UniProtKB/TrEMBL annotation:
Domain of life: Bacteria
Database matches in InterPro entries: AAA+_ATPase, ABC_transporter-like_ATP-bd, ABC_Transporter_VariousFunc, P-loop_NTPase
Entry-linked PROSITE patterns: ABC_TRANSPORTER_2
A Pfam entry, by short name: ABC_tran
Record keywords: ATP-binding, Nucleotide-binding, Transport
Protein name in UniProt: ABC transporter ATP-binding protein
UniProt cross-references to PANTHER family, sorted A to Z: ABC TRANSPORTER ATP-BINDING PROTEIN ALBC-RELATED
Gene Ontology molecular function terms on file: ATP binding; ATP hydrolysis activity
ABC transporter domain mapped to chain residues: 5-230
Gene3D superfamilies xrefs: P-loop containing nucleotide triphosphate hydrolases
Length: 298
């Protein structure tokens, strides 16, 4: 796998608190990758390390074949849109585009102006007078117009209303298709990830719980319902992600690369949200049980 981001033993510590620790991760290039996990999992810290806003306390990280923020050439390879979609309230839309031109050697002014025109933004309008959705679109324009190899978006639609969120995600997918970007999108909205991402990484307490193509993840996870039994008695190759029991019934969420032939089980399909939530709610150290299958999924 050609990785656009490779992290090994990566960690970031603030005084006595670890925000990210012992993170190992490979993110494939040429994909739209959804990074999901609970609050405090380390998603934002990981993305800030990837774009060079933070320096690792431990471990290593490589992005687009180099170390983050290691010189002008490396900086030009990565575009970043933060959760708060930062813009300068006193500057106009046109000022932001001029700012982007001065900071980025591969700046595509025609692309930026065309996007602003298509979005219906007034170049003379101050950013502080724009709506939340318009500010997010302006930030996305700045990220795309620098012509990066990798575009990183950290919860870019978290504060937007449903309509603005949908418009933002549609614009993002059009930009990905047109400019062949690699994208890493952090989001707590699994529905957005399901609609836009073709690869998913679930991060819990700094550890990768599962990673793979969205279609493959859905295809190899199943819900089994049947008479109460010990999950440890399942055949080799059926990995239990979560288990629940009543007095007479057992319900399991399992990952397997083969068909389930036991007629006592009722086998049901799972959506991506079911799968992601299952990995998010189990103990983070359970990742040790999933490592062999991760390599298959990747």
């Amino acid at each position: 796998m050609n990785a656009v981001l490779h992290a090994q033993g990566l960690g970031k510590k603030y005084k006595q608190r670890w925000a990210l620790q012992n993170c190992d991760l490979d993110i494939p290039s040429g994909r739209v990758v959804g990074l999901v996990g609970p609050n405090g999992a380390g998603k934002s810290t990981l993305l800030k390390l990837a774009c060079g806003m933070l320096r690792p306390s431990t471990g290593t990280i490589e992005v687009c074949g180099g170390h983050p923020a290691d010189g002008v050439e490396q900086l030009a390879k990565v575009g970043f849109v933060a959760q708060e979609t930062p813009t300068y309230s006193a500057l106009s839309v046109a000022d932001h585009l001029e700012f982007g031109k001065r900071l980025n050697p591969d700046w595509d002014g025609e692309l930026a102006r065309d996007r602003i025109r298509r979005l219906g933004l007034d170049p003379k309008q101050k950013a502080g007078k724009l709506s939340g959705g318009q500010r997010a679109q302006l930030a996305l324009t700045l990220g795309i117009a620098k012509r990066p190899d990798l575009l990183i978006l950290d919860e870019p639609v978290a504060a937007l209303d449903p309509l603005a969120r949908r418009e933002f995600m549609q614009d993002l997918m059009e930009a990905v298709a047109e400019h062949e970007l690699s994208v890493v999108l952090s989001s707590h909205l699994v529905s957005d990830v399901e609609r836009t991402c073709d690869y998913v990484v679930v991060l819990v307490d700094s550890r990768v719980q599962v990673a793979g193509d969205t279609d493959d993840l859905v295809a190899c996870h199943h819900r089994l319902t049947g008479p109460r039994r010990d999950p440890a008695a399942l055949p080799v190759g059926q990995h239990v992600i979560t288990a629940s029991h009543t007095e007479r019934q057992t319900t399991l969420l399992v990952r397997t690369d083969t068909a389930v032939h036991d007629p006592t089980w009722t086998v049901g399909p799972l959506g991506l949200e079911d799968i992601v939530l299952a990995y998010m709610t189990r103990p983070a150290d359970a990742v040790r049980d999933t490592r062999p299958a991760l390599e298959v999924l990747r």
